[in-house]
Amino acid sequence: MSTYQSDLLRLLEERGYIHQITDAEGLDALAARQIVPGYIGFDPTAPSLHIGSLVQIMMLRRLQQAGHKPIVVMGGGTGKIGDPSGRDESRRLMNDKIIAENVAGIRQVFERLLTFGDGPTDAIMVDNDEWLSKLGYIELLRNVGPHFTVNRMLTFDSVKLRLDREQPLTFLEFNYMILQAYDYRELALRYDCRLQMGGSDQWGNIVNGMELARRMDGSELFGLTTPLLTTADGAKMGKTAAGAVWLNEAQLPNYDFWQYWRNVDDRDVGRFLRLFTDLPLDEITELEALDGAEINRAKTVLANEVTALVRGRDAAVSAEKTAAETFAGGGAGGDLPSLEVGPDGMRIGAVLTELGFTASGKEAKRKLAEGAVKVDGQTVSDAGYLLEVGEGAELKLSLGKKKHAIIRR
């Protein structure tokens, strides 16, 4: 049974979000007596976030559900540098136009999951370029530089990873942790932000920001991290053989997004229902206790609930209908991914790779040889098979039992 007094920490603990807290007792007391503005930062490195970021977005949702104020920080400033955490190489530098376009794309998912406005617990979205672009280099060196030691910065995992593997870490990236720390201090001054949350790999950066604000302003701030989120088989959330599982429909069709959740490992169902849905905990307990083929019912609930939150209820209903038509009825649901081929047709291996069903031509050949590929229900094993479609006609292409697409001309 939880010993926390605040609704916030009780909710986060019950749902499985808590890995580390800098001062659990202090944060618990603060959240029990007042509204706590809390933030998470997101660098706009693409026009959409992927599901590896969804646990952080849900943390902000939980913060608001518990009566506190979420602050979404877009890294328009830090995005010009790139977070070296967990990376072996430098990020591609982006110009202002690309960053602005990415921010616009990313905002969509937050507008579904958070309530924005001017109220005391309404979410706000800010861009750290507002203050970082105005920060003079000499000012940064004089006011912030003395509070950091290179000795300590070299102990950070993001730095050690690169150096241990003898990968270059640019001076540009080395400054990232200083700017992120400065963000927390600036948010505390501007918005009375008292809490920064993030993944477990951000612990050092969060503590840095707390220490900087304490030394410069005497502020008492807090940090909370989530466990490293992996699937039951040890894979990192957000990536599949076919690529990233994007949150925005423009980057990944609703049906493919729904299918990702429908096909999760049985062992992940209960944990994912707690983290990524608003279902009551007693209902989740019943669903995760289902055995054998019955667990598929829980997976469908998971797929529907996550898709409804991220893409909207209509998207979830449509995706489930398409799955039912495709699998149960043997038909071809209207929500399936599709590919158009020209009058000369297209080799089947190239079609599989183009759809993202296989990661390479080599994998496509292997799947064909295994007899895993069907065209309109007929097995095709020849890698040289030319997939031709009549004018205005369509074919159903299947890889195994779970991947299906419509091929048109």
Which superfamily, in CATH terms, is the homologous superfamily of the largest domain? HUPs
Briefly, what CATH class of the largest domain?
A: Alpha Beta
N/C terminus separation: 60 Å
User: Spatial order of the strands in the main sheet?
Assistant: 1-6-5-2-3-4
Q: What portion of residues is helical?
A: 40-55%
Q: What is CATH's topology name of the largest domain?
A: Rossmann fold
What is the level-2 CATH architecture name of the largest domain? 3-Layer(aba) Sandwich
Q: What is the number of independent domains? A: 3
Q: Give a short account of the largest sheet.
A: 6 strands, mixed
Q: How big is the Rg?
A: 24 Å
Based on Cα principal axes, name the global outline: globular
What value does the average pLDDT take? 87
How many strand elements? Answer: 15
Which structural class do the helices and strands define?
A: alpha/beta
Low-confidence blocks of residues: none
Count up the helices: 18
Protein name: Tyrosine--tRNA ligase
Subcellular location: Cytoplasm
Motif ('HIGH' region): 44-53
Family: Belongs to the class-I aminoacyl-tRNA synthetase family. TyrS type 1 subfamily.
